[in-house]
Amino acid sequence: MSEEQADRMIENVIGQIGIPVGVATNFVVNGREVLVPMATEEPSVVAAASNIARMARELGGITTTTSEPLMQAQIQLLDIADPHGARARLIESADEILALANAQDPKLVEIGGGARDIRVRILPRSEGGSHVVVHLIVDVADAMGANAVNTMAEAVAPRLAELAGGRPLLRILTNLADLRLVRARLAIPPGALGGGQVVDDMLAGAMLAVDDPYRAATHNKGIMNGISAVVLATGNDTRAVEAGAHSYAARDGQYRALSRFERDESGSLVATLELPMAVGLVGGATKTHPAARAAVEITEVKSAAELGEIVCAVGLAQNVAAVRALAAEGIQRGHMGLHARNVAIGAGATASEVDAVASALVADGRVRADIAEGIIGELRAER
Ligand SMILES: CC(C)(COP(=O)([O-])OP(=O)([O-])OC[C@H]1O[C@@H](n2cnc3c(N)ncnc32)[C@H](O)[C@@H]1OP(=O)([O-])[O-])[C@@H](O)C(=O)NCCC(=O)NCCSC(=O)C[C@@](C)(O)CC(=O)[O-]
Ligand SMILES: NC(=O)C1=CN([C@@H]2O[C@H](COP(=O)(O)OP(=O)(O)OC[C@H]3O[C@@H](n4cnc5c(N)ncnc54)[C@H](OP(=O)(O)O)[C@@H]3O)[C@@H](O)[C@H]2O)C=CC1
Question: Which residues fall within 8 angstroms of residue 179, CB to CB, at 6 or more apart?
Fold first, then answer.
């Protein structure tokens, strides 16, 4: 990206930060071979996703589905005397509200998207009384959709307030995009994972993440290692997807694992993942960032829905990789093995020394800066 492009993208630009983009291999998603670009600063993430994608191939790869691209804007209404009466009046006028919303974005309507429905929620308010919140549900087609739905929300808010007999306050999308869900499923025979005991231990480890928020946070971080990397590489909004994922993980009142691990009747591990996925192929930085455009081209996806499904597939593979390592040899062997090059660089290894120092660290088994410094000293003394 040129300095000029960067300067137009955000404010007060003083530079750019480079994040490596790796390509995850071996993915078969819904029967199609896919190469997946991943932008991440963390070693072993690309390798781990590729590793499980490879194992999943034996039973057909990863299968995904998606719901319609429905985003929701919230319009908060205040000072309403009769919340239930207001709710009824708003629903009675739904057609008028949807038409008003659609008038804001003729292009979106033309391509088959647009406002679809409204929902009126009456919620208990912590300080007494109730909140009245209207959800405007919009099919955003191939956009992430925040700007599109926010524009509609601001346009319909005065009329909603008039109908409800109050005043509008917040008018903004919700990142808990629970009407725009993606799902992924994979199955791996026990032999590929290291045997039946490893599968049993993966199930036990994954179940802790269902029941314990302390473990769930880390389990879901492993999922997001994959998800955020693809979202970032394709120029999408990582914070929006992360907010959606974590709020969905807490949807029943307790923060839980986003994925589930089971054994099927043949003994294979079956892993599934479901989460909101607000990603686009148009809008935001997706079209303006040249690297993001190139990343999307690599995936060969034709719609935002298809991109979201691939993101979900990578999140699931990433999660299974981490849980397999944790249940088998522990995370440090694979992760620190690939992290060794960073440790070597941090300890002062030059470009020509990095690989030798990293290999020596892995062979030593102690991937530490002080050990790396010692190895560098030995290498230089030998010269
Ligand atoms: C790291 C591996 C893959 C090694 O795995 P391995 O079996 O020791 O290595 P391998 O050399 O036999 O490679 C196996 C496959 O992995 C891939 N692979 C292997 N190395 C590379 C590489 N350099 N470049 C590209 N791809 C690589 C590649 O697909 C390869 O097969 P191939 O295609 O060659 O036939 C394995 O140990 C693993 O999957 N570990 C998990 C690592 C992980 O999850 N890292 C994420 C960071 S840790 C974290 O942040 C999350 C966590 C753990 O806290 C989440 C949680 O708690 O749930
Ligand atoms: N809480 C959050 O997550 C928030 C996020 N954001 C930011 O909003 C941005 C994303 O908003 P978004 O609405 O996607 O961006 P844009 O408004 O840039 O893009 C959406 C618009 O693109 C046009 N368009 C052209 N082709 C298509 C197509 N095939 N499918 C859908 N729309 C199409 C549409 O109409 P038209 O041509 O008429 O514009 C549509 O309104 C991101 O940068 C995000 O960071 C902003 C606020 C809050």
Answer: 67, 68, 70, 71, 72, 137
